[in-house]
Design brief:
Layout lengths: L18 H5 L1 H18 L4 H6 L5 H14 L5 H6 L4 H5 L6 H17 L4 H18 L5
Helix pairs in contact: 2-4, 2-7, 7-8
């Protein structure tokens, strides 16, 4: 009997690149977040999503930037400032259904495209974001 052994190809930790670095670090993450919230504010097809955020987007902009830095493998600014993200618990006060989930994903997808991300990367990130966004739902509809 022949045993076949498959060795995974791994990258040295000294040379591995995080998604944070691939995207361009803090300036790129800030630009993505700003584009996301600018679109939310400008585009009528994101009106329901915009309505969930209250009168000002300033705090949301800052928190999403801090969160995404760590989420993409960069500095854990959000955790340092606010502790564990507890995303679902922090979003429970907001009514989040399928419409809000879908508008969030569409808005982020458009922001990533506008920022020049490759279609493959946009698809990969939207797949990851979908799981989180769907988990955030706290009502039907």
């Amino acid at each position: 009997m022949t045993v076949t052994r498959v060795q995974p190809k791994t990258e040295s930790l000294e040379t591995s690149v995080t998604l944070f670095e691939t995207l361009g670090g803090e300036p790129a993450i800030r630009s993505l977040v700003d584009r996301f919230y600018d679109l939310m504010e400008m585009e009528a097809d994101f009106a329901v999503l915009r309505g969930v955020h209250g009168p000002s987007l300033d705090s949301a902009r800052d928190k999403l930037f801090l969160f995404l830095c760590g989420y993409f493998g960069g500095p854990n600014y959000y955790i340092e400032r606010y502790g564990h993200p507890r995303l679902r618990a922090r979003h429970l006060p907001f009514s989040i259904g399928r419409v809000e989930r879908d508008q969030w994903l569409a808005c982020m997808g458009r922001a990533m495209q506008d920022e020049g991300m490759s279609p493959e990367l946009v698809d990969r990130l939207l797949e990851a974001f979908y799981g989180v966004a769907d988990w955030m739902r706290n009502r039907d509809g």
